[in-house]
Design goal:
By secondary structure, the protein is mainly α. The chain has four helices and no strands. The longest helix has about 80 residues, at about 5-85.
């Protein structure tokens, strides 16, 4: 059988070893560094993006805290204004004050809808207009 001939087997093993070694050297010296560079670049891009995302999220959290604090401060001012206006409404029937109160309540409602904080709206006591006219 020619497949088992010793002369043919040695030459086939020799050329297999040479071709395999050449392909291995070409792949490790030329293509592997390119693959490693692309993997490192992708990893660096992911790290930079994650750092930027964390910085942006911290800025957004700080802005949200600032906006909530301003909103709560304004709601306290509105509550004081409404309580004063409600107490002295029997004595003063000034339409400008009522318009100012309506504007501030509408702004508080708009801010509630924008920032969806249920506890803020619970702090506002709303009375119907027919109770305010007494």
């Amino acid at each position: 059988m020619p497949q088992l001939d010793h002369v043919i087997i040695f030459s086939q093993i020799f050329w297999l070893f040479i071709i395999f070694s050449a392909l291995y050297i070409i792949l490790t010296h030329f293509f592997l560094p390119l693959f490693l560079k692309s993997i490192k670049l992708r990893k660096q891009i992911v790290e930079v993006n994650s750092i930027e995302v964390s910085q942006l999220s911290q800025k957004i959290r700080a802005q949200q805290v600032l906006i909530k604090q301003k909103l709560l401060d304004n709601l306290v001012i509105i509550e004081d204004f409404i309580s004063e206006s409600y107490k002295f409404q029997k004595h003063f029937t000034n339409n400008q004050q009522i318009i100012l109160i309506d504007e501030k309540v509408s702004m508080a409602t708009i801010n509630y809808l924008l920032y969806c904080d249920n506890s803020i709206l619970k702090n506002i006591l709303l009375y119907p207009k027919f109770l305010n006219s007494k």
